[in-house]
Amino acid sequence: MIITSKIPSTKRSMECFLFRVKALLHTTSSECTFWMGNLKHKYLMGQVVSSQA
Predict the structure, then answer these.
(1) What's the CA gap between 10 and 8, in Å, rounded?
(2) Residues near 24 by Cβ (< 8 Å), separated by ≥ 6?
(3) Helix-strand-coil split of the chain, %, nearest 5
(4) Which domain holds residue 9?
(5) How many domains does the chain have?
(6) Is the pTM of this model over 0.85?
(7) Each residue of 40-51: pLDDT tens digit?
(8) Rounded to whole angstroms, how far apart are CA atoms 3 and 34?
(9) Is the distance from CB of 34 to CB of 25 less than 8 angstroms?
């Protein structure tokens, strides 16, 4: 099986996990200890992909 076919499901799983952690920390009043930012789109070599592409 090609690895690129696994990317969408892996991304969904990661996002679900992060939101569950955020909800857990929110219910335990530790919201200030968790910060979630946006990831940058990068090529495999690490260069940032232009948003105007």
Answers:
(1) 5
(2) none
(3) 55, 5, 45
(4) 1-53
(5) 1
(6) no
(7) 788 888 888 887
(8) 31
(9) yes
